[in-house]
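$ fold --in a.seq
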Amino acid sequence: MIWFVTLIRRLESHPFRAKQKLTSFHKFTTSAPTLPHQLCKTENHLNLLAHRFRRTGPPQRPPCRLPNLDAVFMVLKSAQNAYSLREAALVHGFLVVSGYLPNDVILGAQLVNMYVNGDGLREAIGVFHLLPTKSVFAWNSVLKGLLNHGLFEETLEWYGALLWEGLSPDNFTFPCVFKACSGLSDLQQGREIHHFVCSLRAQQRLDPNPFVECAIIDMYARCGSIGEARSVFEKMMQRDLVCWGVMICGTVQSGRWTDALVLFVRMMSEGLNPDPVVLAMVIPGCGRNGAVELGKSVHGLVVKSGFVNDLCAMNSLIDMYCKCGSTNDAKCLFESMGMKDLVSWSTLIGGHSQNHEHEECLSLYARMNESGITPNSVTIAGLLPTFSSLKMLRKGREIHNFVIRNGFECDRFIGSALVDMYARCGRIKEAEMLFDVLPERDIAVWNSMITGYSLNENAELTFKLLRHLQEVEVNPNSITLLSIIRLCTSLAMVKQGKEIHGYAMRGGFDSTVSVGNSLIDMYSKSGHLELGMKVFKLMKEKNAVTYNTVIGAFGMHGNGNHACLVFHEMLNTNMKPDKVTFVALLSACSHGGMLDQGWLIYNSMTNLYGVVPDMEHYACMVDLLGRSGHLSDAWEFVKKMPVDPDIDVLGSLLSACKLHKDVKLAEHVARKIFDMFPEETGYYVLLSNTYATVGRWDDVTRVRGKIKEKGLIKEPGRSWIQIRGTVHSFLAKDSSNPRFSLMSKALESLLLMMKDEGYIPDLSFSLLEPAYYDSKAATSDKFHHR
């Protein structure tokens, strides 16, 4: 036996030469019909072959009958489940020597399948071609092998050859074929094969099969046709957990998180208990949708189903709570976990960072280091936004050094986060240098650089980089468009904003809720409220941010009544208002002079909607009372606040004092501001302007003198205008432009023309002494081009 196996193993890489090399050896076996069945279940099918040879006696005996077909078939059946290529070659050699191959098509088909399961696709195809008759089972085995190797086009070619041979595919053929269509994103081919399946069933040549249906659903979903996938799913007479899982997974992959959660609830209502795979798909959906209550129910299912020790499920729950803004729940879950891995730490660190809880983020990172856990690229990518938000450039550079020392510099996530960090810290040149040296740049890296230019309001470089992005054939995504739309919003670049809107429509991005929200905001802030409302009406899907944006838009345009109507429309859609909703509503009431309605909304926040007022709401109420001229009521409101007022609340009151020329209260409020924030230049200027409204020029000079004494710098006034596609920016007292003299003369000429036409300036709101306007030199100091 030993010499036989040794020789076979030497020849195992060339099984087709086995017969030639072994013809001099006799076959010493009996039929052995009573072989123990349990040998077919052993982990090593070679035991069965060894058992046969032990019963045959010494090699000098004359040849007897070959082993019977059933016994050999049992060997192959036991060997077909993921055994090694070496073992498959050994069995192949045995079958060749025994004379079963190549003539026995049943054993040949089983050997093809055995090679496929042993990752021997080339050998499987070799055996397949030698078979005199090729069964559908043999074809299916090759199709499976091609698919397992990612050879999707070849899979479809072999499927076509199967049809060409006149064979009828079965329910094991089509799952392979549909997966190949998914791999190629070939929706049209998938549709045609689906129609063929339907025609076979209509002819009763193919029975309905849930595995085929799942493959069809998965194919449509992966090819982006979730509607057709849903249609197939709804037509199924019986749906098991696998079918539900495939449909939910496809819905999640298409970005329809709300629909995925609805499907999950339907599945539960039909009495099916989710497995870890379904839960792993649903938990992120709760996070994306902010469905924290449903997420808590899913958390209960995880506990009830005994998956509390499943780190993957627990880490997903932490991520879900963080995405819903419930970082306290995430932290409690984290602390309750008996075992934590690096993913657990990284997820919570990233969650704190995403929710702008930067102190907690840094504290947790310090704890992680104290625990001796080394951060990975995901940890660093989650930590860097905290350094970006806090503008902790030195810490960011330390992390950058850590990245280089540990070989993370090629990681695209890290590269993207570092580019973003440098850009947000105002180091745009360093961001550019890092961007240029990154070996691989995916869309996230490009987006970080585009966002960096956008945040620094550099329209020229933003659009230049966008054109470069298209030249290298990287497709922009919704994040790219959001950055550019926000730039157009901040610079009032309506023309470019409309072009981006058109691009979004052509690329299908206008159906993305976040893009629609940004377009509404851009049009509204650019004075085109009607275009913003048109975008709003055309949106198929809306969220709370959508309604908040529209409410804020109407408020900005002084139309408080329409803002309230949109709020009621929001309530009719069963959408729950949040803190931002009431900030927008109160601001709309303030700009619209709707004092009574504002009080009504403020009082209903906690009583009806469970929203606890914070500083933003207090600031809106002070602004509402102040704009309406009720300064004493505004001051009383501030004194009765349950917390000390912050600078926004006091600043709103100081602005109202300037508007209504209440210098006494302005001085009192200003003293409180300067005690709390002595370095805030803007409020010194606001107090100075308040004095100017009542003509107290000595106090104006005194306050402005304090600004100089303290070494504070007032940010110069800035404006811009777009001419022939180029944005021209203007800064006060900036004479660096080479055409400064020419522009000053042109401005003087315009002012003289206005005076000749009889124009008399209204100086009642002037912040400078009337004598200032008698000097022609003032002209060149007021408007300068950069």
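$ fold --in b.seq
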Amino acid sequence: MTFLKSYKDIKIRTKMILLICGVVLISVLPLSLIVLYRSQAVVLKKTYEVCRNLASNLSNLITEELLINETYDSTRTAITRLKDSSITGLLSAYVINIDGNYVAEMSEKKVGKHAEKKDLEYFFRLKELDLTEKKSGDVTVLQFSYPIFINYHGEQMRVGTAVFEFDKSKVYEPVVKIRTSIIGVSGILFAVGIVIAALAAIMFSKPIQKLTDGAKIIGDGNLSYRIRLKGKDELGQLASTFNQMTEQIQDFTQNLELKVAQRTDELNKTLQEVQALKIAQDGDYYLTSLLISPLQPNNNSSKNVKTEFIVEQKKKFTFRKWNAQIGGDICITDSIVLNDREYTVFINGDAMGKSIQGAGGALVLGVVFNAGLIRSKIEKFQNAYPEAWLKDKFLDLHNVFQSFDGSMYISICMGLIDNETGLMYYINAEHPWTILYRDNKASFLEEELVLRKIGTPDQEDDFYVRVFQLQEGDIVITGSDGRDDLVVQNPDGTESVQEDETAILRRVEEAQGDLKKIEEGVKAFGKLMDDLSLLKIEYHYMENANDVEITSDLSPAIEEGNYLLDKGKYDEALKKIEGLVSQRNNFPELLKLLGRLYYNKNDYLRAIDCFEQYINLCPGDNDYLYALSNTYRMVGNYNKAADVGERLYLRDKKDFLNLVNLAYIYYSLGVTTRAQLMIESALYIQPENEQAKKLQAKIVNEKPQMKEEKNGMAEQAKLAKKKIKEAEFKYKNKEYEEALGLFESILEGANFNNPKFLLRIANCHYHLGTYDLAVIYYKRTIQEDGKNPYAHNNLGNIYFKQGDFRKAKIEWIKSVEIKNDYEPARANLKKIESMEPEQFEIEYSLHGGNSGNGNGKMQI
């Protein structure tokens, strides 16, 4: 690292010299070493060849003498002649026999002597010519040893060894000369390289040096200086560009104040434009926030269902003196009346997009939903079941958002709460799961996603209503995904987005359901990265004066009645419990048992009355919704049966019995397309059900007959008109029994939904003294026409006769509220408020018949 740092500080000229010298050195040195070592190898190889030739020739001459091992004249002569040879560097040559004795030597000094033991061991191991290097004084000796063998009976037998010793320095003398030459040539080349490097470095670095000097002069403040470089190469172009830059800097410097003023003016204009746009944008934001604010009221007026909500949008801004926020979250609560029952309405929405886009979605939802609430407060729109009401509102929102063609979606949690019973009807369209806080424990109400965001195409058929029975002290909390989308700090200091959707349950438990503390807990756990809205619903049981006190005789009587019902002893069971009904006609288990008994006795009208009262008390019981729809079907009231069956269908689209029931109802009404849909759905659940298969066959065969039925409808209408005229005539002449039969047949043809005929039948039963049936038909009249003052007044008369003065007074009050100038009801109210019960003489009126005698007293 120190070398690299030092290298960076060296001038370019020096770097170029070092670079070229390095290139020359790298080029010359390896080549010289290669030549040197190759020469040395060649010399050594040639020496080997000389020794091998000598040893081979010598072996041919002396083999016989070495084998006989007596005289060695030829051997000595051959060795001695080597003195006179011109073999370079040959110091000595000798032959050693098999016994290890010198038998011949060039100098003859060792002849007859015995070789050293270590030398003999080495010689005896040899198989071929071998080279060893040793020191003899100051001389390095190359010793070539050649074993001499003869072939004896096919085997190689050693007879001696020939040894040649060379002076290494003389053998390598040519190599030394070559090395000297190489070093000389390399030195010359290196010197030439250095000279060339120096010249090249000076030539190439001179323009760079000029650029450096010029830049330093200009940097010291002399902007008039110009770098003078000739040529159009890169350095020349760089010098020219540098000079242009210097001119511009000189110009900027001389006109700096003017340039600054111009630039400041331009920036101020741009800033003013940006500020104007910002003010306009904030104005748009503020106006949008003003539009949204009144669209998310907390108008719930219920005393036992409390609602509150918090909405904190991510986008916050200031417009003039006002601080505001804008986003896609919205909460709305209100109170409405459906079928004379009070409900608490709630909706929490989270529109797609941020700030203005999200606010647009929230604005659309607020307008459409509030418009629906306003319509729901008009009397003619209040005759709807909560399931149907929710579906209507869902379709209102869905159709509007679907028109945006995918550019706007919104998730919602929307519902109704029956203030009296605490039953919650709601839907969740891809909204974060709804939270239930009960007994200090928080949990999710949903487990699966059914509906996608509002505006998603092709999901109308997936709609269904969830029902959940709230208990005393229950808290329900719904909120947008801002409660989950938090930026949290990790232990290692990094940030990440929270992925635990159950964390909100812990925040709810820690806050014990307190909405403000939940918000604080969420913010303490992480930083908000989206709009946050939380809506809280708290339910408390509504004390009712009609609540039944369960006495010790009630439970055993119901238990015995169920036992008798299971045994088929319907009359005995009725005798057992009918006496209890008059005092406890709002006890659910009693009504349920009585309705089943009436149904099994084929007394469907009384069964309907019991089932309706039971459903009013326990609207969440799906089994008895089916029972009520089925019973309506049994008496031929197909329209009412369809209404109740559709309620159950909106709750549970997989209820097989209800699907078959609805299929039969729509088949009976001639609505074959709907009947076909229902029976196909039923067969999808139970494909092998024989009853469903037969009904499907009927429905399929019914379609060709529909045209013939339509042709007969005109004739039936004519007959009905004639029968109505006759029934009215009998009624006016007080022939109530005959009129009753006619009106019942007319009513059956009208599918049991005409309030006028229902009132006539009720009045006939009143005159005939069958008060129980009269009550049923008066109630049915009110159900079909809730604003009928005559039905309320006459029903009050029956209650009074039965001794139930409180109910009588309630009905008369309703009659006066509907028609303030209705004198019979006003007179009855005045008397009941001023007299003792036993003194009452009751005003009575029959709509469309005799209204009483001259003194205003009821005429029986």
